[in-house]
Amino acid sequence: MLDVNKILEMSITLTSEHDYNKILEKIVTCAMDLTNCEGGTLYLFRNDRLEFMIMRNVDPEVQRRGGKAAPMELDEAKVCGYSAIHRTLVNVPDVYAESELFDFSGPKQYDKMFGCRTMSMLAFPLINHEEKLIGVAQLLNARDEKNELIAFTEEHEVLIRALASMAAVSLSNMQYVTQIKQLLHSIVNVFTNAIDARTPYNYYHSKHVHDLVVDFVDYSNTLAEKDAKERRFDAQHKEELELAALMHDIGKLVTPLDIMNKETRLAGRLEMVLARLKYIRALKQIDYFEGRCSVEDYNTEAEYIAKITELILQINSSGFLEDAKEVQIKELATRTYTDTDGAVLPYITPEETVCLLIKKGTLTDEEREIMKQHAVYTERFLAAMNFDDHYKNVRTWASRHHEFLNGTGYPNGLFEADIPFEVRLLTIADVFDALTSDDRPYKKPHSKESAFLILSRMAEDGQIDHAVLEEFRLSVEWNEMNRESEKVR
Fold first, then answer.
1. Is 195 or 233 the better-scoring residue by pLDDT?
2. CATH number of the domain at 198-252+367-488, out of 1.10.3210.10, 1.10.150.120, 3.30.70.3040, 1.10.3720.10?
C-alpha cells in the first residue's frame, strides 16, 4: 500500500534544502529510503552527456571504495542512457537475466570488484516543469522487510515517479538560483573591473580588499571550527560581505580622472610654473643686458629662481610639506614681476599656491571633497539596484567604509553605534591595502609592519576598532603562513 506519509516527508525534505550539494545527496538517500534498496547513483545531464555527481551505498566498504564514475555518453545500451533518451523509468528485475536487452558489463565488473551481486536495478529520469532533462538516478538491489534482495515493485515505481518530479523541480529551481547568483557576481565583477580600469593606479584595489575580507572570513570560521564554536559567517553572510567589498568603490565611476590620477601636488600645472620661472629669469637677463639692472641684481634673481625651482620640484613630489618650506612658498606667493606688456603678475598663481601648500598627499581640500563624493555615489548607485533580503546589507556595508567610530569619517560623520562589525572590517581592509599597495601615484608602499603601526595609531585615536584590527592582523599572518606552507609542498 502506498505510504502517503513517506511522500510528504520526502517533499518537505527536498523543498526545505537550500544547499546544492546536499540536495543531490538527499535525492539519492530519499530514493533509497523509499525503496529500501542498497545503493543509488545520481547523474546530471550536462553537455549532452550524463555527469556523475554522487553515489551512496548501505555497505560502508562499497561506499568507501566507490569513488567517481566517468561521464556517460547517451547510449541506449546502458540503462541510464536509455532512461535519459526515452525519458522513461526503467525497471530491471534481474540484471543477469536481462543481459540481452542492455549492456550490464559495468555492473558485473562492479560485482567482481566488490565481491557482491547486483540483482535489481531501477533508473529514472529527472524532468522539470519545462520538460527539460535535469539528470538520471539509478538504484540498485531493492530489499524486502527481511533485507532479502527483490525486484523493484510497482509501488516503488509510483513512489519514485513522485520523487523524480519533486526532485527535478527542486534541482531546477536550485540551478536557476545559482545562475542568477552567477549573473549577479559577473555584473559586479564587470563594474569592479570598470572602476579599476579607469586608472592605471590601484588597479587591483577592489580585488585586494575583497581577498583580504575573504581571508578574514576563512580565518574566523576555521578558528570557530577548531574550538567547536558556531561559525561567525555562514555562506550567505560571506557572500554578502564579498559583494560589499567588491563594490565599495563603485562610486569612483564618476570621480574625475585628473583627481584619481593626480600623482603630484601640481600635476599638469608643473610645466607651466617651471616655464614661468624661466621666463622671469629671462626678463631679468634682458633688464641686465639693456642696463636696467646691475649684474649683482641679475645674479641674485637668477640664484633665487634656481633655488625656488629646486624647492618646487621637491615639494611637488614629497609626501609631506615641512613647515620651513611652507613659509618659503607663502613668501614666493607674494612676489610679482612685470611682463613685456607692463602687466604685474604673480610668480605663482593662487591655484598653484594652494597646490604647493598641500600639507600631505597630492589633493587640495577641494579635490579631496570631490574624491570623498565617491562614497555618496556608491550609496546612490547601490540604492538603485534591487537587492532582495539575501543582499539587504550590501549597500550599507559598501557605502560606509570611510566612516570612523569617533565621527570623523565621511560622508555622514557616523559614530560607533551606527557602524556595524562588517563596515569596521571593510574599513580596515581598505586602509591596509591603500597603505601597502605599490601602485599608488602619490606615495611609496608601506611594509606590512608599518601599515599595522599606522592602523594601531588610528585605533588609538578612536577611528577604527581595536579588536577587529587585532583579529584582522592575525588573519593576515595566518593566511600568509598557509600560503607559504602550500608553496613548500
1. 233
2. 1.10.3210.10
